[in-house]
Structure formats: structure tokens, C-alpha cells
Amino acid sequence: MKKYLVVALAALTLSGCLSRPPESEQPPATVEPAKPPVVVEPPQQPQPQPPIGEPVPQPPKIQQLDWLSSVQPLVNQMLKADGVNPGSVLLLDSVKNNTNGSLQTAKATSALHKALASNQTFSVVPEAQLATARQTLGLSADDSLGSRSKAIGLARIVSAQYVLYSDVSGDVKSPTLDMQLMLVQTGEIVWSGNGAVTR
């Protein structure tokens, strides 16, 4: 019986060996590639809109005034004033703005120069000579003299006999032009006049 048992065991062992293919013939094991980890991105935040700025306020409109028409009648009155010596030298001071707003007083000064350009009474101090005199006094080129005493001091340097001091005052919407003709030697006001500035 032992003989049969050994044979049977041998047969079983052999049959097990035969049913399994040899190791060299086994199909290669398939290796699954490692999957990259799934990165969950946070949901995109909407881009913040730039804040809507407040509208830029419009700059105030500068009044377009007719300076020449405004100064001409006053200049005509001044030229006929008593006590004015023909042939005298006149220092034309720049027009000052004493209104409650912004005015283009440089245009007013320019209009005064035009109005006096062809007069026979005064010889107006040229701009270049005036600029040199301002430097002598230590004033900047765009310094409006501001005070009558500065204007008279400047007039003495340029050997002028008269100073025409002008300013615009009142409400900027309906300003008034005031002019004073002063004698340099004494500071006396020889003539004064005023009038509305026309548009």
C-alpha cells in the first residue's frame, strides 16, 4: 500500500508541476504606472473690478472778456485829463486781479499797451526796459508790482514821470476796471477812472 501511496503522491506532485508553466514562460507582470496625484485647484476668484473713480470736475470756464473795448474809453479819458504833461514817460503797471475769481489779467495789460500804442501824450516804457528795471529791484519778471509804492519805485528807476496803476475788482462775472494815473515825484493821483469790463 505504501508503494501506491508513494506513486500517487509522486503523480500528484508531477501533475502539479506539469500544469504550472515554467517560470521562464510566465507572462511578464504588468506594472501600472503611478497616477499623478489629482490637484484640485480652488475655484477662480473673479478679478476685482477697479473702483469707478469719481468724474473729474470740469475746470471753471475762463471768462472771455473784451479787454480792448473795456480799456479804450478809460485811456481816452486819461489822455485828456488836466495836469498831464504831453511828452512824459509813462510806466504801465500790469493789471491786478482783485475779483473773487480767476481772470486773464495779462490780456488786460496787453490791451492797455495796444490802447496806448498810438497816443501822442505819453511815451510808454518798453517791456524790455521794464524787465531790466524789475531785475534791478529784485523782482521776478512775472511779479505784478502789487503795491503803488513798488510801482513808483520802478518808475523812478526807468525815469518815468507817471505810473498807470490798474486793477479789476468786484464779482468775477461782472468785474469793474479801476485805473489811476499817479505822478511819480509826489505819488499824487492826477486822474482816476473806472468802468465795467465788457464781454
Automatic annotation (TrEMBL):
Signal peptide location: 1-19
Gene Ontology biological process terms, A to Z: peptidoglycan biosynthetic process; regulation of cell shape
GO molecular function terms listed in the Swiss-Prot or TrEMBL record: enzyme regulator activity
GO CC annotation terms, alphabetical: periplasmic side of cell outer membrane
Heme is among the record's keywords: no
Cross-referenced InterPro entries: LpoB
Family to which this protein belongs: Belongs to the LpoB family.
Family annotation (HAMAP family): LpoB (MF_01889)
Protein name listed in UniProt: Penicillin-binding protein activator LpoB
Organism per entry: Serratia plymuthica
Taxonomic lineage of the native organism: Bacteria, Pseudomonadati, Pseudomonadota, Gammaproteobacteria, Enterobacterales
